[in-house]
């Protein structure tokens, strides 16, 4: 479903070059949930922005459902749902339904399709009671649901969430987790980034750890626990980072 092959990304910052990703390769199968784990500045957002066609890799390739993110970005965009950060970007003065209708029109969905999709998502996410209320009175958790519904209105095959729970309270974070489980049951492929180890263990089939642009681990949690002879992911993560400089330089 997603092939990231030897992706390197350099940014030119004033006169200096910053290498945000170094030869990163990850394959994600259909229906999998992958967690990108890394500290601030590790390169998570850069990778997600590259997948979502917002930026182009300096070298290497990314394919989404067989389409190249640089050469065939329109095909890629159709198949992706993307939510960056926990800022929902909803219009307060509109109702939840109106917000969704607005975004559906941006996706080019027809009237009937929009109605059907909104009904389906409202049912799936338990938003029916407040679908026709103005967003201004919504809790963070309610907003989060509407924002995620907006991200997947066009029924994308792959969904990218960049630090979806950063800045959210526990209740809203739990809302996010529940929705991810639901989307998994629907067979969606999901990639999300986090610097919260627990979140990754709760949600993911596989984990990709990134440190200073290097992929320091990619695989199942079971395999990682076995290799490290520990199930303490916090400890494993930290020790991978410390070793990262020697082992993966
Ligand atoms: N547009 C940009 N210009 C210059 N440097 C950037 C840009 N975007 C990201 N970087 C740098 O790339 C590195 C990775 O950043 P980022 O992908 O945002 O990390 P993360 O999302 O894991 O916190 C950081 O050193 C960051 O400063
Ligand atoms: Mg980031």
From TrEMBL:
Q: Mind telling me which Gene3D superfamilies this protein's record contains? A: P-loop containing nucleotide triphosphate hydrolases
Q: Which GO terms describe its molecular function?
A: ATP binding; ATP hydrolysis activity
Q: Which SUPFAM superfamilies match?
A: P-loop containing nucleoside triphosphate hydrolases
* Residues in ABC transporter domain copies: 2-237
Q: Does the UniProt entry include the keyword Transport?
A: yes
Q: Which CDD domains match?
A: ABC_NatA_sodium_exporter
- Keywords from the named record: ATP-binding, Nucleotide-binding, Transport
Q: Quote the PROSITE patterns the UniProt record gives.
A: ABC_TRANSPORTER_1 (PS00211), ABC_TRANSPORTER_2 (PS50893)
Q: SMART domains from the xrefs?
A: AAA
Describe the family membership recorded for this protein in Swiss-Prot or TrEMBL: Belongs to the ABC transporter superfamily.
Q: Please identify the protein, giving its name as recorded.
A: ATP-binding cassette domain-containing protein
